[in-house]
Amino acid sequence: MGVKFRDPIHGHIEEISIGACLAAFFLGPVYLLANGFRSHAVIWLCMALLPGVVGGSEWLIFSVPATCAIYGVLIHLLIENKYRSLGWRQVPDDTPRGPGAA
Fold this sequence. Notes:
With 102 residues, the protein is mostly helical. The chain has four helices and three strands, in the order ββααααβ. The chain has a domain at 28-91.
């Protein structure tokens, strides 16, 4: 069970689940771009690749997995903040998901 948010205009409910964390971990900047986090996709690329450019390719062994883990943990918070900034409200966990939910 994840956190659910309701669109105040259309009433659509979206759930942020563990799938978002896994997708951010495994897909990285592709997932960030697909969800409208362009600046975070650039930050992801810099965090992951810049140590390899500066310190040599052996640094990539540490920087890429660390960046994946950081964004895998933080994506939940990023999505929540995005919804809140758009005016979406958090709804109880027992609210049905989907466009037909009232």
